[in-house]
Amino acid sequence: MLYEELLAFCQKRLLYFFRNVPTFENQFCWTSLSKRCYEEMYQKHVITGTEELKRSIPGLAQTCQRCAAFYIPARNKSIPKYDLILGKQLEEALMAFLSAKLGAKTCRGDQQNLSLPDCRILKPDGKTAAYFEVKFHAAPFVKSRQFTGRYCYEGSATLDLAKIQKQLALIDSGLDAPVFYVHWIEYPCLKGIFYQTSAQVRAEFAGGSGEFARRFRDGDRDKAPKNVYLSKKYAPLLEMGDFESFAAELERLIHT
Questions:
Q1: Is the C or the N end of the chain the one with fewer CB within 10 Å?
Q2: Cα–Cα distance for residue pair 235/232, rounded to 1 Å
């Protein structure tokens, strides 16, 4: 599985980065539980209730208890400058892996226009083959069922409404390559790289479903007001492509 390869490629780097930070016990680790959760929560393409999943997946009930105890108190402790550093670490790890796997150069997006997606992969002639925006999700929205009607493993991957709307407008103005939205999910249960095309995201935004306004958090006080995104779009997990499909699509675009 390609996600296992990614973890093997960058695990040492990421664990070193988090060496002085409390992390959940199985973060950046692939286990038999991870495999079962991936099969049951994603590959079957059927949304199953968490209570039923706990009965069918050995060890999941205990993991869910520890997950809630770990993540519910931590939701208001985000420190923006550290979140940015973490985001760049993960982007760089994924970019390096894709470069090695596909034999193509990856780099940052346009540093002059920061509304563009953060990463891009290049064709052999130096032109952009594709842009991609990486969103890392380690903390599932444990109480999502209560607030959004969706199960936590399926309804926690988010996009910032205002930011994505700016990017969709840039795509409309004639961006020179396709755009993908990549969700790096590292929950205690479900793990993997999943992606959406900009066309999928546009259709979801037009539909208006899956929107949720989160509460203002302590960490938001340290951000510039324009960078505080409270309105979120909860992306549908089962409509996302998997890591293998994403890599294959990038390879096709690199050589087109």
A1: C
A2: 9
Give start and end residues of each alpha helix (H) in the chain.
2-17, 32-38, 50-56, 60-71, 80-102, 144-148, 161-172, 198-207, 243-254
C-alpha triplet 183, 188, 189: angle, nearest 5°: 80
188, 152 Cβ separation under 8 angstroms: no
Please count the helices (runs of H) and the strands (runs of E) in the chain. Answer: 9, 9
The pLDDT profile of the chain, 256 residues, written as one tens digit per residue, is 999 999 999 999 998 988 888 899 999 999 999 999 999 999 999 999 999 999 999 999 999 999 999 998 865 555 556 677 888 899 999 999 999 999 999 998 866 666 788 899 999 999 999 999 999 999 999 998 988 889 999 999 988 888 888 889 988 888 889 999 999 999 999 999 999 999 999 988 887 655 555 454 444 444 444 444 456 788 899 999 999 999 999 999 999 8
Residue type present at position 99: S
CA 69 to chain centroid, in Å, comes to 22
Distance CA 118, CA 94 (A): 12
Q: Is there a contact between 255 and 233 (Cβ–Cβ < 8 Å)?
A: no
Q: What angle do CA 195, 198, 203 make, to 5 degrees?
A: 105
Q: Which residues contact 123 (CB under 8 A, 6 or more apart)?
A: 104, 129, 253, 254, 255, 256
User: How far apart are the C-alpha atoms of 74 and 138, rounded to whole Å?
Assistant: 11
Paired tokens of 197:
């095309």
